[in-house]
């Protein structure tokens, strides 16, 4: 679906590129041994290195490097076996060294690609320009005291990956799909938790507009957008603003802007003239980062199955539809759950149960797949009871509800409540005989040609048997008795 | 020799160490004598910013116990000075700057930790140029250091050189058997030359930089300063070693430098770089250089004329790279987390007020130069170009060391000058480093050994430059030079004289 803005002077296309800052999952910070975990009382996860004390030196954390390489591999990107750390110099109260250690000229990961899928099922490839490692800054708190600002350095020095896309995105929807897909890949890889509300993933959004056939026009950068919805809204608002500026004879200036979700508009933060001169230069405290090719190959070999591959495999192995595979692979935990349930069973039955009753139960209880009230093994056991005719499908739904409520195993519930299917033809015949005797008028109607009453007799029989009759046997016996 | 006899403080570090191990005297006795000399002479020399008498005596007692237990480390009980650029846990560390005037680090530098591990006794923290930026110890926020040497017939206060001026003056005067220095462009070698002592800047990466306050990270290197070559060998053996906390530290074993001092020089090829014949160099410097060449030839070395064609770019390149790194390294002194703070109405005012009050003129000058050469539009012309020239300078050394084992040059273009003869043009001051900077740019080890005195009786040093991590050959050649020079001159202001005077009174 092509996204266009109809202006007074013509039709405008938007051009968007994203810089996503993703916090690396690691025990320790990028250059110090201090804990990198989120939360904690202010200034409790801070080493002298993170606080920029005199004589302190950075030592790169191998695990953070491995996470960046894994991410690069997950983005089908080129891994640069030689990269370099640079200093980005600027003064701010929550930047203890007076510079951020980043990778400016020689990033650890080069170009790659992400395939996104849109609502209409269409797919597009969005290019990745680069991924580099850098330190996070601390946090300034200006609202704790009327006259003073407070600084929390817990985040100072935590490893971030900055993942830069090509300006390939052409609609707010594509931008949303891109961030979602990127987040999904990072979560599969276990390299970033992708929690935008906690700030462990944030986006800088570069937006420009142009008319058909034009080269790129000047872009603006919207800083620190912290939800997918805001990314989409910010693009929409900024593109609209730029069209209005151009159409009223003005010029869009290259500048940094902020998105105000309350007003649904962007506003200028600083112009290009006020932009910092970061005076990048190679950090003399660190040697070039040289990766062993064998080590990279080892990381590649141990990568988990990624969403696109998993999706294709589920479709092939379990016969699920394109739509279903998308839902089932949205999170790795869902796919794992599904496969535990479905492996070796009637896959259609399993798919319908997971996507139907199971998801409904998660919604109703407000639980996530990780703390689901029913384990995959229990659900699989329940479906096993259907398959081996211990219970029928209708009883299974009751059993499932009780599993959700109590956490009990399905067989225990079935036995406790005596829900086992009746396959004793004598008992079935007796129940049918009673139903037919009680409904002689309906039997007469049926025999005079009102075939539809068959369902009525099935229902009455099942009711008489408290729902436990084996449906196939009930059907068979009913036909026989009605034919007599 | 007992520690309380007047000449005890004239012993070499090796003699003092051996005497301690033989129990000829105790470390407490030696340390008490050294502290008394510091108390007597330091008010005049200003070589120490901070004297840690109580701690020194406690360390001395510990060392005596270790010696008694037969567990003496290689530096056990030996009183030394520590340049006030090395962070010492619980002891004020100032970098001779107002911005760190009251800074007490909660951690210990690796170099001082290594010395403590080996039993050294720290008398205190020695004076230096502010943040190690200077060649005369004139930029210290704690005042200048007076060189214990005097021109014949003059009491004029001379500079001890810089930036390790306090360490050099202390060692020359006998206020410690050795001292740590740091060398970025000559800060160990030039003051060693001015004060008639020995100092070595080891290969970049040989000593850990962890906990040493940074000036220019790609150049800074710690090293020992002492009265003999063997003393430096012992002390470097203790200071050096791999440290996982410094990414530029190199993981290779520390050889026995003292053993290397006795090696034969037979067959060694000594290069004489023609570019070090600087125009306008005093005849006395040229003469002492020629004398050094003759001594080494007599010791069995082959003398070879060599060329280091990019030498002339060394100083200019250095004064781009060092300030560039310093401008970034010193950004952390912002008044926010530690050190001096001068309040302001806004964050920017806080920065400006703090840094204006905290930094001296030379430090500010270098921060500004460094900021300029890294700025957009100037980076390529200055910093990037300088890095390329630096590679060429490094290649000069690699090329020449394919042919010769060691280079012999003068250490400095002059003897010590008077405090009031300080050149008004900072560039004139920078020229003091002209012979020492190239080895720093290349990262190769270099040593200054006292070789003689000028007509006014002031010491002159000769510089030996070696291959990467070949400090051992430098110690061998340095020892030979030392033996040949038989340098027995002594400075005018000496601890032993003070002690003698004290005993006499």
TrEMBL record, chain A:
GO MF annotation list: ATP binding; glutaminyl-tRNA synthase (glutamine-hydrolyzing) activity; transferase activity
Taxonomic superkingdom: Bacteria
Ligase recorded as keyword: yes
SMART domains, sorted: GatB_Yqey
A biological process from GO: glutaminyl-tRNAGln biosynthesis via transamidation
InterPro entries: Asn/Gln-tRNA_amidoTrfase_suB/E, Asn/Gln-tRNA_Trfase_suB/E_cat, Asn/Gln_amidotransferase, Asn/Gln_tRNA_amidoTrase-B-like, GatB, GatB_Yqey_C_2, Gln-tRNA_amidoTrfase_suB_CS, Gln_synth/guanido_kin_cat_dom
Catalyzed chemical reaction(s): L-aspartyl-tRNA(Asn) + L-glutamine + ATP + H2O = L-asparaginyl-tRNA(Asn) + L-glutamate + ADP + phosphate + 2 H(+); L-glutamyl-tRNA(Gln) + L-glutamine + ATP + H2O = L-glutaminyl-tRNA(Gln) + L-glutamate + ADP + phosphate + H(+)
Keywords, alphabetical: ATP-binding, Ligase, Nucleotide-binding, Protein biosynthesis, Transferase
Domain spans labelled Asn/Gln amidotransferase: 336-482
Enzyme Commission designation: 6.3.5.-
PROSITE patterns: GATB
Entry annotated with the keyword Heme: no
NCBIfam families according to UniProt: gatB, PRK05477.1-2, PRK05477.1-4, PRK05477.1-5
SUBUNIT field: Heterotrimer of A, B and C subunits.
PANTHER family in alphabetical order: GLUTAMYL-TRNA GLN AMIDOTRANSFERASE SUBUNIT B MITOCHONDRIAL AND PROKARYOTIC PET112-RELATED, GLUTAMYL-TRNA(GLN) AMIDOTRANSFERASE SUBUNIT B, MITOCHONDRIAL
Annotated family: Belongs to the GatB/GatE family. GatB subfamily.
Purpose: Allows the formation of correctly charged Asn-tRNA(Asn) or Gln-tRNA(Gln) through the transamidation of misacylated Asp-tRNA(Asn) or Glu-tRNA(Gln) in organisms which lack either or both of asparaginyl-tRNA or glutaminyl-tRNA synthetases. The reaction takes place in the presence of glutamine and ATP through an activated phospho-Asp-tRNA(Asn) or phospho-Glu-tRNA(Gln).
Protein's recorded name: Aspartyl/glutamyl-tRNA(Asn/Gln) amidotransferase subunit B
Naturally occurring in which organism (per UniProt): Ameyamaea chiangmaiensis
UniProtKB/TrEMBL annotation, chain B:
Keyword Transit peptide in annotation: no
Molecular-function annotations in GO: ATP binding; glutaminyl-tRNA synthase (glutamine-hydrolyzing) activity; transferase activity
Any one GO CC term of the record: glutamyl-tRNA(Gln) amidotransferase complex
Keywords in alphabetical order: ATP-binding, Ligase, Nucleotide-binding, Protein biosynthesis, Transferase
Active site, per annotation: 83 (charge relay system), 163 (charge relay system), 187 (acyl-ester intermediate)
Record carries keyword Acetylation: no
PANTHER family recorded: GLUTAMYL-TRNA(GLN) AMIDOTRANSFERASE SUBUNIT A (PTHR11895:SF151), TRANSAMIDASE (PTHR11895)
Task of the protein: Allows the formation of correctly charged Gln-tRNA(Gln) through the transamidation of misacylated Glu-tRNA(Gln) in organisms which lack glutaminyl-tRNA synthetase. The reaction takes place in the presence of glutamine and ATP through an activated gamma-phospho-Glu-tRNA(Gln).
NCBIfam families: gatA
Protein's UniProt name: Glutamyl-tRNA(Gln) amidotransferase subunit A
Species, as recorded: Ameyamaea chiangmaiensis
